[in-house]
Amino acid sequence: MKKIMLMMVFVLPLALMAQTRPSPAKKPLTMQKEDKTVNYLEMVVLEESIGKKGSKEIKTTYSFNCTNKRIDDMLTEKSPKFETVIHALNYLSGMGWELVSVSENKYYLKNTKRKPPVKR
């Protein structure tokens, strides 16, 4: 009886392990490269005092330099409506622009847009 029990202690675990199925082979992940276009924008803010000395009236002008000329024209048309620099940055943020850096009166922004998929 001892020999049978001892045999079962060693053989039974091996028999159970032999019944397990191997894990399925993992499929390699395919990396899909998405085409992205990155536009960069430089916004220069100039503040000038208008009128006589001591007057507190300040005129703010915005100039835009972008990698896309169409965006330059559109922002130049909208710029007189900006009351402050914060309003201008909030407007650009709403359009998807991300502030990258600030240097004195220059603001550097970038906008990443994905290209639409090609229809076949």
Structure notes:
With 120 residues, the protein is of the alpha+beta class. The protein has a domain at 39-114. The chain is 32% helix and 32% strand. The chain is built from three helices and four strands. The chain has helices at residues 2-19, 69-78, 85-94; strands at residues 36-49, 58-66, 98-103, 106-114. A four-stranded antiparallel β-sheet has the order 2-1-4-3. Strand 1 and strand 2 form a beta hairpin. 8% of the residues are buried. The model is unreliable at 115-120 (pLDDT under 50).
Q: Gist?
A:
It is built from three helices and four strands.
Helix and strand topology:
Elements: H1 2-19, E1 36-49, E2 58-66, H2 69-78, H3 85-94, E3 98-103, E4 106-114
Antiparallel strand pairs: 1-2, 1-4, 3-4
